[in-house]
Amino acid sequence: MLQFRQNLYTEEHNFSHEGQNAAANNGEPSAAGIGTVELRLSSVVVQDNNTPAIFPYPGYAKLYLLCIVATSAAAGGYQLHLRSFDQVADGDALNMDKTIYYWKKDQPTEVAPVQIHVFTSLIKSKQPLRDVAAVLSELYRDASYKLLTATLDKLIKGATPIPDISNLLFNIAGIAGKYLEKVDDRPLLTWYQSFTGVAASGTVLGKTEKMAANCYVTINLSMVVRNDLPAAEEPRKEKPQAGSVPLLFPYQQ
């Protein structure tokens, strides 16, 4: 059984505390609404794959990257990602620059998620890598998995303490690990990152970068939050004057 609490790094980033500091020092924080929230797993670098090179074997490792995102958003607040990587050597950067969660305000009454929890684990396989689609198909049919994800969806939308949420995510990861079959008991790195008070303070706007590392792996995660501009505040688009030349390279944000 996978021991996700070995080689574990955890952190909580509470934006509400930052909002309180901003109010004390500079007046009330910005009341601008949140328009989009994007979580991106920007890089995964394997310093040591924990596989010794013994002639004639080069010391490559076969790895799975499991990532689970759970948020308090009204809809679409749960995502599970699973990727496999073969022949990973010491010092390799995995081909992983991916948006793992995206929320967009589509209706005026929609509220950005208050809590966002990210579980990431890099797991070494002892056998040829399984087809990821087959693993996910088996996982999604698992009765315990269905029960735990349904329970998580209910709890995370309430005032449930972070330890209770994290225990559920660790249990869900354990079920996923079962379908990977023969893997090392200890992942190279497991990272549990929570963001709380996301919708409570204007200080959340912009880019927040996080990193977890040990002697085996370094993982970088970023959260980008953009504001929700009312229609009256959107940039005005000027009509071209008669005889003017259109821009060949229009501005892109």
From TrEMBL:
It comes from the Bacteria. Residues 232-253 are annotated as: Disordered. This is Uncharacterized protein. It comes from Cnuella takakiae. The lineage of its organism: Bacteria, Pseudomonadati, Bacteroidota, Chitinophagia, Chitinophagales.
